[in-house]
Amino acid sequence: MSAEFAASLATLADLLRSARRVVVLTGAGMSAESGIPTFRDAQTGLWARFDPYVLASPEGFAQDPDTVWAWYEARRRQVMSAQPHAGHLALARLSALSRFDEFTVVTQNVDDLHERAGCTNVVHLHGSLFAPRCMACAAPHRLDAGAVEPERAPRIAPPVCQACGGRVRPGVVWFGESLPEHAWQLAMQAAARADVMLVVGTSSQVYPAAGLPVEVRQADGQVAVINPDPSLRVSPGELLLRATAGEAIPALLTELAG
Description:
The protein is an alpha/beta fold.
């Protein structure tokens, strides 16, 4: 542990000791530690010849729903085979500390690793691979865990909605779509009330999610960034811990306990 990291860790622990409301904003780097490729790196094997920006769009689904559904099935199965890492588990333990009145995890990831690690108050800004819905009536659809293996089926017909007979779509936010209004309002409200925000595994360059740390700072809250990227620069007044979530969050728990 470097002296710089140790000092930043101690400062963050002090901030959390006096905090009552905490928000954690997580991005692709958090899931990448569990072996889940980032969106731009998700095209391998059978899917290497496809453009993910086409597959992840309303236009792509309208043109070829079977291929799009198969791709999302492949991504879902990849997530199902992954496990929460030490950072996920430590974050769940942190969220359960009785010292906090509110602890909200706002994630840009579409997996369920936070929930499987034990976090209970999770807001999915970009939807979830595990929450498909009907395109016609928006009714949620329960996934069949025994669906055809996508690796052997590059085209899988989307399910039919049991409520209205419409076509079921993946429950994620596609390019050109707005964030779910309810999720965004929950995230904004949590940010406006936060004493401390941890920004983990994201460069905070993509809006509107990148506006959440700004909301915290404007409300006189503190922002701490956990990211190993050596080129990352933070805004004035923000604390930087240049480490992965799997390194920093368990260390933070230990520091708090001390």
